[in-house]
Amino acid sequence: MALYRLPTRRGFLRQSIGSAAAAAGLAAMAGQARAQAPRARWALLSDIHIPTDPLNEYRGFRPYENLKRIAPVVAESGVDGALVNGDIARLEGLPGDYSNVKTLLAPVLAKIPLAMSLGNHDHRKNFAATFAESPGEEQAIHDKHVVVTQAGPVRLVILDSMLRTNLVSGLLGKEQRVWLEQYLPSAGSTPILVFMHHTPGDRDGDLLDTDRLLGILTANRNVKALIYGHSHRYAYDQVKGMHLINIPAIGYNFNDSEPVGWVHAEFGADGADFRLHAFGGNQANDGKLTSLAWRG
Q1: CB 281 within 8 A of CB 268
Q2: Distance of CA 142 to the CA centre of its chain
Q3: d(CA 206, CA 171)
Q4: Closest residue by Cα to residue 226 from 147, 294, 151
Q5: 208-265: pLDDT as tens digits
Q6: What is the pLDDT of residues 129-141, one digit of tens each?
Q7: Tell me, what's the pLDDT at 12?
Q8: CA distances from 265 to 105, 145, 171, 240 (A)
Q9: What distance in Å separates the CA atoms of residue 254 and residue 259, rounded to the nearest whole number?
Q10: Burial per residue of 258-281, b for 16 or more beta-carbon CB atoms within 10 angstroms, e otherwise
Q11: 60 φψ region: left (φ > 0), alpha (ψ -120 to 50), beta (else)
């Protein structure tokens, strides 16, 4: 059964005030230099799974209603940008799915840049017909939606891990990997955060070229983190000092132990702070702050 707590602007602001106090304490401990360093605030969402039918539900959750509740909260949260990390559509990437997504995200689109990656339940042509433009620079990679955009002191590289619509596993493919191998060494010292939908694992439903991707990313020290969704979990890990960050789902969880919600991220040149905003599922860690330092 779905378990919800309806977020309100007053409640969010109360938590934001507490968050600001906690962040100020951390900044004081880290030193005055970091306190004055530029930061970029982004809302990270994943697996919104918006259906054509607003009443569609899964595990007691209604993804349409979830995004309807959360989009105004994100729009009023004071972030500089937002990113939806794949599985934008419910199952097959229908035109009606994306039409509803655009309507629901209107409060966000009216205020800030909104970037998106494609997941296994998306459809490239239907997505592109509804969302013709992306913030940043779209890369010339055949049949892939790859975008590079600046977020204050960091750069976001948004990859396309979709292999085929409604097929669980993902694949970057040779052309995208070759582009990445060439781009990263030429990108300078600006910290790079890489986004894609699929989990970088060895299960049949994960990214099938995970080992080759991780080899490319860990070899380039300017890459600080790989951020993904797909598993409907919220988790942190590392490989060779590079952070692996699994963003929770907005639509629904697969397990009662996982939250349903989004993450407020503050990106800096030396690290980032991630605060969970859980409104459904397991809300025990709602408001929890996770601070990460980038590898040198």
Answers
A1: no
A2: 23
A3: 9
A4: 294
A5: 999 999 999 999 999 999 999 999 999 999 999 999 999 999 999 999 999 999 999 9
A6: 999 988 999 999 9
A7: 47
A8: 19, 23, 27, 22
A9: 10
A10: bbbbbbbbbbbbebbbbbbbbbbb
A11: left
Say if residues 93 and 127 touch (Cβ distance below 8 Å). Answer: yes
For residue 30, what are its two tokens? 């880290």
Look at residues 257, 201, 267, 210 and name the one whose alpha carbon lies nearest to residue 232: 257
Number of C-beta neighbours around residue 257 at 10 A: 10
3-state secondary structure of 138: strand
Q: How many CB atoms lie within 10 A of CB 57?
A: 16
Q: How many CA atoms does the CB half-sphere of 138 hold within 13 Å? A: 16
Using an 8 Å Cβ cutoff, are 107 and 72 in contact?
yes
How many Cα atoms within 13 Å fall on the side-chain side of residue 11?
12
Token pair, residue 210, equals 């995970």
50: Cα within 13 Å, side-chain hemisphere: 26
Homologous superfamily of domain range 9-293: Metallo-dependent phosphatases (3.60.21.10)
- pTM across the whole model: 0.89
d(CA 78, CA 121): 30
* 217 within 8 A of 223, measured Cβ to Cβ: yes
For residues 174 and 282, what is the distance between their CA atoms, to the nearest angstrom?
39
Proportion of the chain above pLDDT 70, given as a percent:
88
- Compute the average pLDDT of residues 158-186: 98
Ramachandran region, residue 59 (left: φ > 0; alpha: ψ -120 to 50; beta: rest): left
